[in-house]
Design goal:
This protein is α/β, with parallel strands linked by helices and 575 residues long. It has a 7-stranded parallel β-sheet with strand order 10-9-8-11-12-13-14, with helices on both faces. It is elongated. The relative contact order is 0.10.
Length: 575
C-alpha cells in the first residue's frame, strides 16, 4: 500500500512529604514544550490551518498499525477519521505522552475508549458539523432507492431502456422507522416528515418530548421493525447493537420493507441481509457503510441488484468536510490547552451551556483538591474524601460529576507519579482505594449561581498544618467563586478570604500587632513579591495569616518565617 507522509513544523493514595513542623515540601515545575499533533487521515485545509497555528503538525496517511505504534510516542495528539484503529497497543506505545485523540466525525467505535481512559487520554469527536450532510445523504439514498435511480442510470448507460422494470414506490403516507433519534436521526425525521411520511422512532435514550416536538412517536424496537415500510439506521456500533439486524429481526419485519444504513455497517448481519433480500422479506437496501470497508468485489451484497451502494459518503460534502475539520481541530487544540470539551466521549458529558456556567467552579474544585492534599502529613494514606456542595438550586439542577472529577484530579495528581487528568481521575482513584462521597446542602442564597460553596474534607489522616483540622478531626477547607475567581473562605475553624492563585503561605500566629510587618519584611528583603495578605481570627486570640506570593520562596526564607517568635506553625502551598 502506498503511504503518504507530510511533516509540517509550526493501594491507598499515599501523601509523601519530607517536611516537618515549620517547613515545607518544594515542588519543581517543568517547562512546557510545543505539542506535536499527528493527523493520520485526510483532513480539510481549514482544520489543518488551526492545528498549524498551535503546534507541530505532522500528516502521515495510511499508516500500518506497526507504523502508528512506532510514531505515536512522539505525539501529544492524534486525529483520525474512521479508517485508523486506535487500539490498546497504540496507547501502550504512546508511553503516557498521548493526551488527546480526536475523531473527525461522530462514531468512535475505532477507538478503544477503555484503554484511552486508563491511560488518561481524552477522546473528543466532531458530532455536529457533518450532521446535516449525513441526514441529507440518508434522504438521498431513501429517494434514490425508492425510485431505482442507480439501477435505471446503469441500464441506460448499458444501452437499455427499461421503463417497466424500474417502477418505484411512493414515499407519501408510508411509515419510516428511524432507529436512533440522535443528531442525524432527528434531522432525517424532520426531512422525511417534509416528504409526507409517517415517522416513528426507536431510541431508548431519546426524550419523548424532543421526539414529539418533531412530530415523531417513540416506540419499542419490535413495534418499529414490525410496522415500518422503510427503516433508516442511525445507531452507534456497540456490543449491544452489533448485528442487531439479523435473521431473527428480519423475520419480524413487514414483507417488502426497505432499509437504509448511513450509520455503521456492523449493525447489520450482511449475510442475513442477503438472505432477506433473496426471500423478498427485504425488497431493497441502500447502504453507505459496511462491516468491512471497502467490501470485497465478489460480495453477494455488493452484487445484489436490489441494493444501492455508496462508498461511505455520509459526511462527504465540501461544507461538512471543512466544518468537521475545524470542529475537531478546535476541540483538540482546546483539550491540549487544558480546556474542558463539550464533545469529550470518555469524560463526564456536560452540555455546553452547563459547561460555561460551571467553568469557574471547575477551577475552584481542582484548586481545593490540590490544596487539601498538600495539607496531609507525610505517610498518611488517603482513603476517604467527603465533598459538600452548598447550593440554592434543586438537586436535579446541579450536575456535580464534573466538579467531583476535578476535585479527584486535584487530590491525586500531586501525589501520583502518573499523569492524571479529567478522563482517568475516577479510574485512578478507584485503583488507589480512594473513596469520594458527596453531599448537597440547601442554602438560602441566589439560585442564579449553581454553587454557593464547595467544602472538601479528608478523614483519618494527619495534618502538616494543625489549624486546617476541624472539630470533627478531618482536614477541612471550603471555597467560593468571587468575581469569577476561586477563593478560599474557610480553613479548619478559621474564616478567611484568600484568592487561590499562585503560591500561598499560611501562618497561625498569636493575634497581636506587627506580625504582618515582620513577615512582609522577611519576604521583601529576600526579593519575594507579595500579591496579597489576609488575616482571619478566632476567639482564642489566634489569627491565621494568608500570604500570596508570586514565586516560591527559597528554603532559607521560609526558615526565617518559621523563626518569628509568635508564629506557631506555617505551611507553604503551591496552587
Amino acid at each position: 500500500m502506498k503511504r503518504g507522509y507530510e511533516t509540517e513544523t509550526s493501594g491507598p493514595a499515599d501523601s509523601s512529604e519530607t517536611s516537618v513542623s515549620k517547613s515545607q515540601n518544594l515542588k519543581p515545575t517543568s517547562s512546557d514544550s510545543t505539542p506535536t499533533i499527528l493527523v493520520s487521515e485526510k483532513l480539510g485545509e481549514a482544520g489543518l490551518q488551526v492545528l498549524r497555528g498551535f503546534g507541530n503538525l505532522e500528516c502521515a496517511y495510511n499508516l500500518s498499525p506497526e507504523e502508528l505504534c512506532a510514531k505515536i510516542s512522539t505525539c501529544d495528539a492524534l486525529i483520525v477519521r474512521s479508517g485508523t484503529k486506535v487500539t490498546r497497543q497504540v496507547f501502550e506505545a504512546a508511553k503516557g505522552r498521548l493526551k488527546v485523540v480526536g475523531r473527525a466525525g461522530v462514531g468512535i467505535d475505532n477507538v478503544d475508549l477503555q484503554a484511552a481512559t486508563e491511560f488518561g487520554c481524552l477522546v473528543v469527536n466532531a458530532p455536529t458539523a457533518n450532521t446535516v450532510a449525513a441526514a441529507e445523504h440518508g434522504i438521498a439514498l431513501l429517494t434514490a432507492m425508492s425510485r431505482n435511480v442507480a439501477q435505471a442510470d446503469a441500464s441506460i448507460k448499458a444501452g437499455k431502456w427499461l421503463r417497466n422494470k424500474y417502477v418505484g414506490v411512493s414515499l407519501v403516507g408510508k411509515t419510516l422507522a428511524v432507529m436512533g433519534f440522535g443528531k442525524v436521526g432527528s434531522e432525517v425525521a424532520r426531512r422525511a416528515k417534509g416528504l409526507g411520511m409517517n415517522v416513528i422512532s426507536h431510541d431508548p435514550y431519546a426524550p419523548a418530548d424532543r421526539a414529539r416536538a418533531v412530530g415523531v412517536d417513540l416506540v419499542s424496537f419490535e413495534q418499529a421493525i414490525a410496522t415500518a415500510d422503510f427503516i433508516s439506521l442511525h445507531m452507534p456500533l456497540t456490543p449491544a447493537t452489533s448485528k442487531v439486524f439479523n435473521d431473527e429481526t428480519f423475520a419480524k419485519m413487514k414483507k417488502g420493507v426497505r432499509i437504509i444504513n448511513v450509520a455503521r455497517g456492523g449493525v447489520i448481519d450482511e449475510d442475513a441481509l442477503v438472505r432477506a433480500l433473496d426471500s423478498g422479506v427485504v425488497a431493497q437496501a441502500a447502504l453507505d457503510v459496511f462491516t468491512e470497508e471497502p467490501p470485497t468485489k465478489d460480495s453477494k451484497l455488493v452484487q445484489h441488484e436490489n441494493v444501492t451502494l455508496t462508498p461511505h459518503l455520509g459526511a462527504s460534502t465540501k461544507e461538512a468536510q471543512e466544518g468537521v475539520a475545524i470542529e475537531i481541530a478546535e476541540a483538540v487544540v482546546g483539550a491540549l490547552k487544558g480546556e474542558l470539551s463539550a464533545t469529550a466521549v470518555n469524560a463526564p458529558m456536560v452540555p455546553p451551556e452547563v459547561l460555561s456556567e460551571l467553568s469557574p467552579y471547575v477551577v475552584l474544585a481542582e484548586k481545593l483538591g490540590k490544596l487539601a492534599v498538600q495539607l496531609v502529613a507525610g505517610g498518611s494514606g488517603i482513603t476517604s474524601v467527603r465533598v459538600v456542595y452548598k447550593s440554592a438550586r434543586d438537586p436535579d439542577d446541579l450536575d456535580t460529576r464534573l466538579l467531583r472529577a476535578m476535585i479527584t484530579k486535584g487530590i491525586i495528581e500531586p501525589i501520583s507519579a502518573s499523569f492524571i487528568n479529567l478522563v482517568n481521575a475516577d479510574f485512578v482513584a478507584k485503583q488507589k482505594g480512594l473513596r469520594i462521597s458527596e453531599e448537597r446542602v440547601a442554602v438560602d442564597s441566589s439560585p442564579e449561581f449553581p454553587v454557593d460553596s464547595i467544602q472538601v474534607q479528608i478523614s483519618n489522616v494527619g495534618s502538616k498544618f494543625a489549624s486546617s483540622v476541624s472539630e470533627s478531626g478531618s482536614i477541612s477547607i471550603e471555597g467560593k467563586v468571587k468575581y469569577g475567581e476561586p477563593h478560599l473562605t474557610c480553613l479548619g475553624s478559621f474564616g478567611v478570604d484568600v484568592s487561590l492563585e499562585g503560591n500561598l503561605i499560611l501562618c497561625r500566629q498569636v493575634d497581636q500587632p506587627g506580625m504582618i510587618g515582620q513577615v512582609g519584611n522577611i519576604l521583601g528583603n529576600d526579593n519575594v513579591n507579595v500579591s496579597f495578605m489576609s488575616v482571619g481570627r478566632t476567639v482564642q486570640k489566634k489569627a491565621l495569616m494568608a500570604i500570596g506570593v508570586d514565586e516560591e520562596p527559597n528554603k532559607r526564607t521560609l526558615e526565617k518565617i518559621g523563626k518569628v517568635p509568635d508564629i506557631e506553625e506555617f505551611v507553604f502551598l503551591n496552587l
